[in-house]
User: Which sequence fits this backbone?
């Protein structure tokens, strides 16, 4: 952690000027932003997605500072999460990321991996320091180059038309989605695009084999032979990278393919075990470029560990960002801190249904690109402001947790004697508040 030892010294220096506050209120919302037309994600064949759904977290300290984060949702699967968050998180020093990580680890013992919660604490920590998160972590303020990340499947002719629009908009890198039944169909799409644009832009391809979903319709299943044949074809066509060509836990196959392939193999977006698993994969060189999404893969702190470990092993990092506007913001900051200097940041874009307007619908200012680049936010924290009217329109508050509400629930559920015992234990464990 040599590079980020310096970054954390910067954090500590700013933290010394902070009066310690504690987390006093947690709010959860379920947000469903309607899309103008159904979006059919390549990674879930057969699904017509009609809304951008996510669960929104608002943390409030006893001195009024707010932190926000958001986790993608299919529906109301997190209903009741507030019952867990209250006992684990209320009363914490929100700048104590180590303890936050430990609490989230404890929740995972129940099968609940909620890395998306952690960035809200970094939002508070950076706001208390008066800095954008990337600056707090030692990153520089510079434009970020983007690649237009397609989301739906299209045939060769339609894909060429789509890429032409992205090139006209200023993008110099595009990622295609392949998910056809036959290898030949997938190669045909890539061949059509590289023939039309291969000398003008960098082209990546996502096979979406990392986490295959068949809940709605059948999905192609690649074995190592098909992955190798497709990788060879992409290399011959001048493709810049191939993403997720095998199952995310086929560690042997990924390492074998990465060692043999004639182009970079990339992936790592959804390894919810986070740093321990990704560290193992780095040591085994399962990918040339690691693409963890902090909203899934352990949060900001564990992503910083991944970045440093990649550097130590001569590998590269560029994050996955396809979640929602807040998830995009978190990974944007991390790209500014440790992203591949020759790389591009994923920019989800598949009009008319998936655009910044609908991805970032509850933010006052969407993350709109300018000719394929994006300026970093200058405000403190994660650098966005929640549009409260949009939240009222599309969001529904599902949970409010405060110390008083938690005490009443504990009293009701466990009775006065056990509730009093728990209260005494928590007071003793918390100890006196003090500044760092």
Assistant:
């Amino acid at each position: 952690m040599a590079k980020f030892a310096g970054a954390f010294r910067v954090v500590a220096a700013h933290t010394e000027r902070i009066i310690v506050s504690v987390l006093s209120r947690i709010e959860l919302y379920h947000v469903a932003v309607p899309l103008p037309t159904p979006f059919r994600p390549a990674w879930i064949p057969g699904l017509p997605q009609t809304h951008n759904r996510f669960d929104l977290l608002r943390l409030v300290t006893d001195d009024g500072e707010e932190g926000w984060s958001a986790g993608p949702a299919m529906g109301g699967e997190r209903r009741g999460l507030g019952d867990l968050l209250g006992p684990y998180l209320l009363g914490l020093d929100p700048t104590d990321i180590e303890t936050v990580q430990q609490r989230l680890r404890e929740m995972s013992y129940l099968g609940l991996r909620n890395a998306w919660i952690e960035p809200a604490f970094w939002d508070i920590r950076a706001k208390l320091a008066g800095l954008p998160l990337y600056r707090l972590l030692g990153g520089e303020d510079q434009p970020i180059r983007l690649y237009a990340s397609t989301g739906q499947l299209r045939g060769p002719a339609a894909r060429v038309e789509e890429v032409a629009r992205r090139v006209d908009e200023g993008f110099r890198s595009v990622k295609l989605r392949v998910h056809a039944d036959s290898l030949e169909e997938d190669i045909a799409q890539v061949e059509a695009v590289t023939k039309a644009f291969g000398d003008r832009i960098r082209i990546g391809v996502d096979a979406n084999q990392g986490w295959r979903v068949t809940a709605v319709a059948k999905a192609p299943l690649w074995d190592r032979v098909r992955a190798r044949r497709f990788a060879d074809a992409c290399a011959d066509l001048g493709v810049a990278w191939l993403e997720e060509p095998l199952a995310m836990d086929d560690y042997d196959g990924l390492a074998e393919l990465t060692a043999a392939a004639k182009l970079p193999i990339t992936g790592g977006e959804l390894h919810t075990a986070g740093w321990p698993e990704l560290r193992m994969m780095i040591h085994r060189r399962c990918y040339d470029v690691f693409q963890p999404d902090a909203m899934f893969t352990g949060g900001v702190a564990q992503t910083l560990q991944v970045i440093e470990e990649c550097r130590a092993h001569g590998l590269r990092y560029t994050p996955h960002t396809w979640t929602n506007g807040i998830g995009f913001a978190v990974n944007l900051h991390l790209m500014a801190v440790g992203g591949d200097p020759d790389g591009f940041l994923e920019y989800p874009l598949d009009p008319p249904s998936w655009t910044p307007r609908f991805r970032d619908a509850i933010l006052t200012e969407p993350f709109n690109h300018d000719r394929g680049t994006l300026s970093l936010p200058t405000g403190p924290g994660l650098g966005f402001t929640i549009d409260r009217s949009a939240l009222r329109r599309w969001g529904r508050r599902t949970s409010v947790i405060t110390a008083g509400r938690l005490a009443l629930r504990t009293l009701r559920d466990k009775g006065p004697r056990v509730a009093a015992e728990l209260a005494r234990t928590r007071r003793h464990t918390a100890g006196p508040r003090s500044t760092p």
User: Anything to note?
Assistant: The radius of gyration is 22 Å. Residues 20 and 432 are 11 Å apart (CA to CA). Residues 12-18, 431-436 have pLDDT under 50 and may be disordered.
